[in-house]
């Protein structure tokens, strides 16, 4: 039964890497689902949360394609589960995720190269007004994106647990520490990108409050969620009230713009 769940999760992650609709390819979701399927939720959740901070710094810019977060999440989760290291293996799994993401990038380029021929076939079908053929070819292309993650996931899951344990244990300390430092730098880049997107005078107070509340150890995650939800609700309420007042006083808007 675990096989079926892993294949399904891997397929959804590969497809969502292109669709971006339900976000199954995001590390936090993909690793969590693998953890649920293998009864290793805590360690996979920690792995997914860390990889998610790294993925914030991965973006497609022009013709440059970002590393494959879907394959990195699925493959590193499987390695972590099969190694049996538990929380002690999270750092090693994170170190393995970087080369896995690069390997997934090459697989993505290969699939997209094959998809060029499918696009030409869709053009021919469009000239003949054969919309069923267009839908069929699109589904085939998405299926290839899913298999891009499914096949490596099956191969990794088929490897004996002892072999995975020996492989992860044989990784030199300097390599693990170096990759861990590199991952930390990528996480910092991800934070910086998010800060640049929300860097407004209205958002900075909440940014500072987040650090203050996070330092108070008596607060649980549920309490932090309640505080964040309350602040967001109050902010939306006050902004909507301000917009309503401004719409009722158009002369005030003109004077504000003049000032």
From TrEMBL:
Keywords: Cell membrane, Membrane, Phosphotransferase system, Sugar transport, Transmembrane, Transmembrane helix, Transport. It is found in: Cell membrane. InterPro entries: GatZ_KbaZ_carbometab, PTS_IIC_man. It is a multi-pass membrane protein. GO terms for biological process: phosphoenolpyruvate-dependent sugar phosphotransferase system. It comes from the Bacteria. GO terms for cellular component: plasma membrane. Its main location: membrane. The chain crosses the membrane at residues 27-48, 55-80, 92-119, 140-159, 171-194, 206-239. This is PTS mannose/fructose/sorbose transporter subunit IIC.
């Amino acid at each position: 039964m675990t096989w079926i769940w892993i294949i399904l999760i891997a397929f959804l992650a590969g497809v969502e890497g292109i669709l971006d609709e339900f976000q199954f390819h995001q590390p936090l979701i993909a690793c969590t689902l693998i953890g649920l399927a293998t009864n290793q939720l805590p360690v996979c959740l920690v792995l997914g949360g860390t990889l998610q901070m790294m993925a914030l710094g991965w973006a497609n810019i022009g013709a440059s394609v970002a590393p494959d977060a879907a394959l990195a999440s699925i493959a590193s989760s499987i390695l972590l589960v099969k190694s049996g290291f538990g929380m002690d293996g999270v750092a090693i799994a994170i170190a393995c995720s970087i080369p896995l993401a690069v390997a997934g990038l090459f697989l993505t380029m290969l699939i997209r190269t094959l998809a060029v021929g499918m696009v030409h076939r869709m053009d021919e079908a469009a000239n003949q007004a054969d919309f069923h053929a267009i839908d069929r070819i699109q589904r085939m292309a998405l299926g290839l994106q899913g298999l891009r993650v499914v096949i490596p996931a099956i191969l990794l899951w088929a490897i004996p647990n002892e072999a995975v344990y020996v492989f992860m244990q044989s990784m030199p300390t300097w390599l693990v520490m170096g990759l861990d430092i590199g991952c930390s730098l990528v996480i910092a880049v991800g934070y910086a990108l998010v800060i640049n997107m929300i860097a407004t005078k209205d958002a900075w107070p909440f940014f500072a409050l987040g650090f203050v509340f996070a330092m108070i150890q008596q607060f649980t995650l549920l309490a932090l969620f309640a505080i964040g939800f309350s602040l967001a609700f109050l902010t939306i309420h006050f902004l909507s009230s301000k917009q309503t007042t401004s719409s009722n006083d158009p002369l005030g808007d003109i004077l504000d713009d003049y000032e």
